[in-house]
Sequence to fold (1168 residues):
Amino acid sequence: MYLENIKKPEDIKSFSSEQLKNLADEMRELLIKKVSTHGGHFAPNLGMVEATIALHYVFDSPKDKMVYDVSHQTYCHKMLTGRAYGFLDENRYDDITGYSCPEESEHDFFTVGHTSTSISLASGLVKARELKKEQGNVIAIIGDGSLGGGEALEGLNTAVELDSNFIIIVNDNDMSIAENHGGLYGNLKLLRDTDGKAECNLFKAVGLDYVFVKNGNDIDELIKAFNLVKDSTKPVAVHICTQKGMGYKPAQDDRETFHWTMPFDRETGKTLMSFEGEDYGTLTADYLLEKMKKDEKIVAITAGTPAVMGFIPEKRKLAGKQFVDVGISEETAVAMASGIAKGGAKPVFGVYSTFMQRTYDQIAQDLCINKNPATMVVFCASVYGMSDVTHVGFYDIPMISNIPELVYLAPTSKEEYFAMLDWSIEQNKYPVAIRVPENGVISSDRPVKTDYSELNKYEVAQEGSKVAIIAVGSFFELGKKTACDIQNKLGVKPTLINPIYLTGLDIELLENLKTEHDIVITLEDGCIEGGFGQKIASYYGKDSMKVLNYGLKKQLYDRYDIDTVLKENHLTSEQITEDIKQIL
Amino acid sequence: MYLENIKKPEDIKSFSSEQLKNLADEMRELLIKKVSTHGGHFAPNLGMVEATIALHYVFDSPKDKMVYDVSHQTYCHKMLTGRAYGFLDENRYDDITGYSCPEESEHDFFTVGHTSTSISLASGLVKARELKKEQGNVIAIIGDGSLGGGEALEGLNTAVELDSNFIIIVNDNDMSIAENHGGLYGNLKLLRDTDGKAECNLFKAVGLDYVFVKNGNDIDELIKAFNLVKDSTKPVAVHICTQKGMGYKPAQDDRETFHWTMPFDRETGKTLMSFEGEDYGTLTADYLLEKMKKDEKIVAITAGTPAVMGFIPEKRKLAGKQFVDVGISEETAVAMASGIAKGGAKPVFGVYSTFMQRTYDQIAQDLCINKNPATMVVFCASVYGMSDVTHVGFYDIPMISNIPELVYLAPTSKEEYFAMLDWSIEQNKYPVAIRVPENGVISSDRPVKTDYSELNKYEVAQEGSKVAIIAVGSFFELGKKTACDIQNKLGVKPTLINPIYLTGLDIELLENLKTEHDIVITLEDGCIEGGFGQKIASYYGKDSMKVLNYGLKKQLYDRYDIDTVLKENHLTSEQITEDIKQIL
Fold:
């Protein structure tokens, strides 16, 4: 075992070529062992074993600074920079994050989880080095999939202006999470097919020097190339061709499934997690496929994450031209959706909440100012969603619900979600976003309406008095439970309200509440600041109505335990009932 | 006069080449006449006269759909599509907007004012046409300056995937608002220098067909090229080289000054508007230049709008390497700022509020999750700022103040602004944004503090009782006036508070207010929903304190009269005093 003795990158500098190759085998074995039992990003890391070794062999981290894009491929970097324990010791698997993390190591420079940021972030390190007249290489490492994102393309365009040492490693495994989409991938293919010799070269077109590495899983070839560009005084792109999933056949054969994976049987590659229930992704794809059959104007759009709304490869094939993957280009996805709606067809853009952040201006300008009736389906906007600090999705309500003209709907059940989706697709007045519930697929115990065009009409699910609970989306279940608790413990039957709309107030209902109620509580599965409940508090500001807003405090959250976070934010029915007891 | 008789684009189809040229002369004369007396976008429109005529001569709008990027260059399009009155008749100059506007004409498809959106928006029209099996050309018209923005580059990358008629006219005048920055401009130059024949071709690299037009101000040459691509069944880029400012020598000689201009003397080109007072742009540039001399780690950053913080060409030259223009790439600007701060230098990114929207994810992820101490200076975030619907800048408080870790400061005076800027540049703990006041440059009548590192400590500017006025930034003056009015008319001396921080509450102060106050009013020069005041309302939700939030209702605003908007939103001291009278 080499890795047990590698505490810092220098420790591999004296290795022979043979030893480096053995080290690669060892690292690959650890990747397979950890991810097959623990889950994680898999195929991208398998492809980057040799390149990571070669980078640390040639460059001197942290004086030479490596910035990994999206950081789905940093496991090997972590192994070589003092964090091998996170792979060698099963009990310490969770001691390291799955992403680049400066708090863990001086060899990491940014906390990264969104794609397409590395070149622009690294360009700042270059500029700082120049201003401070320091030495050292700055190296951005970006995958071909990430290259199509706006920030990456901007960064690529800007790099040459720095006119100084700046090494951009393009890790071309001919794959995004799913297959690549975009014209630049034709150019990457041309370059691969011509051993980098084609005259028409995207990197040269934006002014970069260019080095091609045919076998990006060959350590010797990589070392030669990296030595060539080390201490370069000009921005240079090093295009390395790697095999995603290298060394584990099921991952090589099905690179999409093994991009990120739950634990699996290493012999067969079959997943160890069986999930029997319904999920909104699959339900959404199936609903849309049915609807597409009847209406050829319906088109589903993804920005590089087709699985978010259940469009696994077979279903993409079924949808045909009615499914568009723009690659990791959320800005274009929203603008295109606006254009499609303007053109009289019916676009549905499915997106993780955390990545919707990448397209704020397109939502505000391209879509909402133009009032085009496109539909956005927002997933994982919830405390029950993803919990890595870069993937937390519950800042969406402050972000988009305050954009004029947008209608943001918060369904509380499966039936309500599909009624809203159906309405949204068929209406032609409003840009609509729908916040998919994240507390499991729950059926409604109430009839749901089919027409949402009379905006901001809330639903009274239970009539009561004294206390009114306005419970949004995923938190409607918490509202129900709290209503029960209050009735049982305090002898008061509260009114329970499903507000449906996050983008406006039901003034008539709020006014009516004044006659029989003293307290309104709002429950939202989102950041409380700038959110829905504060609008209610503001509305009642000059009245005697007491308003208690419940939601998640504005702060960073990272790899949290849901129950702990809920408790810390007073988001259990017991705590809320106790609060009410104090006031009543 | 031809234009008086041109009511629709068909009206020029029968024109001879000679007549088209005469029409161009006539249109250019109208542009000079209107803009010299009225102000507006000038040099971009002068350059596009011939291309617009040729487009309408060859294509059949609105069946063929033209989407203009940023729409700084749509005046000629408006002249040919039934809106010549907006140029022929001085009394009707304001009857048309300065941007593409679907409400005005069926020949406009989107309301556009931000750059880099045309290709992605038009791609939606292409997709809708294909889904609906309709006919017609879709034409995106984009300037070279806009091409460097992330959304444009994403769109360019995505276009070829549509595999259908899609014509992208690249209007290359070798200029952004200021000079271009970015590697792709080297490629455009190479293509110009080789009459489009160079093998290394950015457009071909992303899979597009390519047509070069050497003289983009020659109608015959343009018509030939447009006829060549009309009804093309593949995406194609038509690279036309035009002269920005064509036909008006002062504008040809100083393309930056004449990009957008206030009224000027057409003989000399000298501006007719004299402005004697101070402005925050100039003050900021001068402050930074002084500071740069003493500290070579300070660097000012712009995303294609150097004038926003006063960096006119001479001052850019003085700043040298300490000034970076990344082109119209706000995403890269913020990520680079984060990287520069991480690298130990001191970045200051100056940006119009409306364009800050283009970089939400980079603020949240690249900057704030990483807690890097970069400074963003936000201009025109105010009802007193720009008033075109696409340029309104007062949605910033809901947008960024709810992002964890950001410190958003709202200075009330010149002294406070520079104290904050100085503190922010020198501190190394927080990502900071500063909201530059927009109600003129006002000197403080109170001493200002120099250290803002104890977060969320509000300033009590006047001690009083019963009513507390918390007045943010530009609206502090309104707060002062309201405090006077209340004292004079109602006999109550209010407490007046400058909250300084938009990103947190001063709990101690808010608690203390409870003892002597019954009413808190908040005044913010921004969208009220999701903003600052609603946090105060929420804080007092379960208390008897009455809270009145004043600000701007969430809605679209377009070319508004400030006083009318202020009145409609109850934002005069008289109205507020009257409201208080009702409650006291």
